[in-house]
């Protein structure tokens, strides 16, 4: 298979993991993976739990999960083209071995180029979204990158610190008490980095950097990669432990250290809490409030109360 990355320069190596880095890839040419036929087949064959379809209005309050409702993959793509729909095929490396190979190759090339960069728990997601689709202000827990395959989109990336990323919100998301949405103020944009992504661009940014995305009037096909490193795992355990202290022990944590006795106490607390099964009881569920309808103006129609159902993640 040809290389995924065009080149990774000494400058990119120094920036990686600390600052935003934009590289070039050649996946936009891979019709075998990203043709409409291939996308439609993936929509139909992926484990339905890994297919997250959403729709959005002009503000956060009209955002909702969508039931595929038995529609063929080609009909879901039709709804995306004509409506306002965003779909995320999660962990496609488990649905199709070609994507498992691709994921290995992506990280193989990165680990060969970046000294000390060793990853585990890697995941590959495929996003297909309408020309007017948006993703609201949020952050993600693991390390990540966004790969543009078809169409153009704009991404705003904000500093991974208060007030853009309050500690309590990180703790709740890490503990799966909340989804990754954050409170947003328009003036945050004065502190954002803005990138326009075209086919062949891939962007990686600092861990937990809040971001939001708007498509630039074209259907977009993108990939997201997620990974963990030992440093990311320590950051997770620190936030998790701080969240337990704050909410269950009524203690206000003051340390975000990733080493030393305070850190290791939190790491032990996190392990004990997860082993006790408490996290599962407090986990997140997805409530489906719309269904796909390619003939509707937004590509979706609301479900009446009795037709709504919950999917447990
Ligand atoms: Fe994200």
Walkthrough of the structure:
With 313 residues, the protein is an alpha+beta fold. It has 10 helices and 15 strands. The chain has helices at residues 10-15, 31-34, 36-45, 73-82, 92-95, 97-113, 167-174, 230-248, 260-275, 278-281, and strands at 21-24, 51-55, 64-67, 85-89, 120-129, 134-138, 143-150, 153-157, 193-197, 201-204, 211-215, 220-228, 285-292, 300-302, 309-312. α3 (36-45) packs across α4 and α7 (167-174) packs across α8. Fe (ii) ion (FE2) binds at residues 138, 140, 211.
Largest sheet: 11 strands, mixed
Q: In which range does the helix fraction lie?
A: 25-40%
- Approximate strand percentage: 25-35%
Radius of gyration: 20 Å
Tell how many strands the DSSP assignment holds.
15
Order of helices and strands: HEHHEEHEHHEEEEHEEEEHHHEEE
Distinct ligand kinds:
fe (ii) ion
Report the average pLDDT across residues. 88
Q: What structural category do the secondary elements indicate?
A: alpha+beta
Shape: globular
If helices are DSSP runs of H or I spanning 4 or more residues, what is the number of helices?
10
- Give the terminus-to-terminus CA distance: 34 Å
Low-confidence stretches are none
């Amino acid at each position: 298979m040809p290389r995924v990355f065009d080149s990774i320069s000494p400058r990119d190596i120094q920036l990686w993991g600390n600052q935003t880095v934009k590289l070039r890839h050649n996946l936009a040419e891979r019709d075998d993976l990203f043709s409409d036929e291939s996308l439609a087949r993936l929509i139909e064959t992926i484990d339905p739990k890994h297919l997250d379809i959403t729709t959005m209005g002009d503000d956060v309050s009209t955002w909702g999960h969508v039931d595929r409702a038995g529609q063929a993959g080609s009909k879901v793509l039709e709804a995306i083209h004509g409506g306002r729909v965003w779909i995320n095929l999660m962990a496609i490396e488990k649905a199709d071995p070609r994507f498992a190979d691709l994921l290995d190759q992506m990280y193989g090339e990165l680990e060969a180029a970046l000294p000390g960069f060793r990853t585990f728990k890697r995941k590959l997601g495929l996003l297909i979204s309408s020309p007017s689709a948006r993703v609201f202000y949020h952050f993600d827990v693991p390390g990540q990158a966004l790969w543009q395959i078809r169409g153009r989109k704009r991404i705003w990336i904000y500093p991974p610190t208060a007030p853009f990323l309050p500690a309590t919100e990180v703790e709740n998301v890490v503990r799966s008490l909340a989804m990754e949405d954050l409170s947003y103020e328009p003036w945050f944009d004065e502190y954002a980095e803005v990138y326009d992504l075209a086919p062949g661009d891939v962007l990686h940014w600092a861990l937990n950097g809040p971001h939001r995305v708007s498509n630039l009037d074209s259907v977009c096909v993108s990939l997201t990669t997620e990974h963990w490193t030992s440093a990311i795992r320590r950051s997770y355990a620190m936030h998790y432990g701080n969240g337990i202290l704050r909410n269950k022990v009524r203690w206000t944590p003051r340390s975000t250290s990733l080493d030393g006795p305070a850190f290791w106490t939190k790491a032990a607390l996190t392990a004990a809490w997860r082993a006790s099964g408490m996290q599962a009881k407090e986990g997140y569920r997805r409530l489906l409030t719309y269904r796909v309808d390619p003939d509707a103006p937004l590509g979706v129609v609301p479900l009446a109360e009795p037709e709504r159902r919950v999917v447990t993640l």
